[in-house]
Amino acid sequence: MDRRSFIALAGGAGAAAVTGAGFYRWQEITPTLHYPGRAEGHFLRERCALPAPTEVVDLDVVILGSGMAGLAAAWQLNKLGHAGALMIDGPQPFGNAAGARFGDLAYPTGAHYLPLPSPEMAYVREMLSDLGIITGDALAEKPHYDERLLLHGPEERLLYKGAWQEGIIPSAGVAPHELAEHARFFAELERLRQLRGAGGGHVFAFPAVRSASHPAIDALDRITLRAWLEQNGYRSPTLHWYLNYCCRDDYGTRYDKVSAWAGLHYFCSRRGQAANAGSGAWLTWPGGMQPLAEQLAAASSIARRAGTAASLKRTASGVEALCFTLDGGVAKSYLVRARKAICAMPLHVAARVVENIGALGFDAKRHMPTYAPWLVANFLMKAFPAELPAAPLSWDNVVYQEPGLGYVVSTHQDIRAAPPSKTVFSAYVALSDRSALEARKWMQEASARDLVALASADLKAAYGIKFAPCVERVDITLRGHAMAAPLPHFRSNAGLKALREADGAIVFAHADLTGFSVFEEAAWWGCEAARRVLD
């Protein structure tokens, strides 16, 4: 942990304008920094020697990883009547779905919402029904959802040209010819959302492997989203900013690098509706996705154990996984022997853990996805800073700039007569303004002062000197390999296809198998892996 003093966000002349002891006490707060998986990752990268195992565990199925794919696999095994599986948590329980707390206030340290699943996502709907999140017919066109989890308004707003406006795409003060382009773009999205290909299925669907083939649509994976916009005559700067924001938000990568197919899939694949909410609604939790992860773990009745897999190899009777824990830099190991293993870890980790992964058709040098880094900063607010007029404080609050992605208010779903005395503002930053390698290097070397300055840029733009006195604590999580980035040609990645089809003693379950990281993909591959190990 870097123990340097907390940066004064007001800065320069603004700092001089803020007086009183409260401001200076706030300056002295030290941020807490978290690098989940960094120590274990470096241990694997450097191939450090492990001590001999102190224990051997024998069982039928082992799940390596407790992210959403691993949890979905555990839930599916339980649904299919299989008991006795063991989950090895990995470096951080629940992975990118993890959250934390400031006392009674929960907040996300990774993913923070789930769009309503479309009718074809029966696996997600069944899961949500099991957990009581869908309270009516899960397979209906418009199921009924738990009211407490449906995002209520005001949902989102944008700070553009010094004023807040409802929604995220700029509208107020935008030239008529740009607004006409916006309308033309969204009309095209609606056409693509309904477009069907070979076999009659939608050309954009979840899971992505179920997207129907269509020559013109398939070709979109050979160009970037920006190139597609330019080819189709979209020149509006505000539309380009919006689509770049969406790609950075969903994929951690700019629109001039993301595959056009993936960029359009972001909009056209989700057709979920609810009987008690409008189209395009979201499910949210104050703690991000962690409450959902906890529910899945409980519903699956899976036995879990702390540890990270250092090696996974096939044997005559199944598999052996050598696992380790780190305590103060000291490693301890244990051996797990099983008939089958579900490898539910990111592929950049699996490539170092699965012995001879090349024999399965995956060449790490040629087939490894590019990974985008993320920073999530959670600010414990002892008071709400004064707002600018116009659009009120919303769940999602975005600033028209880069590299920040705005901030989410953790207590937004906490409906009460008066606002709570405290809240958490969760600020997200995709370090897409530099290469992934440069971003990871910067994250490694950046001081607490530098990290807070970057994390608070959007909040400073929104509140200026009014923000600093309201902050009590800050918690920063840095994820160097947060998500796979769907660059052009990612759909034709032969190595990913080979791992998707692996059906031996080791099967794979992770959103990386598709090439981009979203819950719907993780859930699908987890359920598929569970069915496969029981066939």
Here the CATH topology of the domain at 39-110 and 286-369 and 493-534 equals: FAD/NAD(P)-binding domain
User: Spans of 5+ residues with little confidence (pLDDT < 50)?
Assistant: 1-26
Instruction: Let me know the number of strands.
Output: 19
Would you tell me the overall average pLDDT? 91
Distance between the ends? 47 Å
Indicate the percent of residues in helices: 25-40%
How large, in whole angstroms, is the Cα Rg? 23 Å
Coarse shape: globular
Structural class: alpha/beta
So, CATH architecture of the domain at 39-110 and 286-369 and 493-534? 3-Layer(bba) Sandwich
Query: What name goes with the CATH superfamily of the domain at 39-110 and 286-369 and 493-534?
Result: FAD/NAD(P)-binding domain
Please report the number of helical segments.
18
Order of the strands making up the biggest sheet? 1-18-14-17-16-15-7-8
What share of the residues does DSSP label as strand, in percent?
A: 15-25%
CATH C-level of the domain at 39-110 and 286-369 and 493-534: Alpha Beta
Largest sheet: 8 strands, mixed
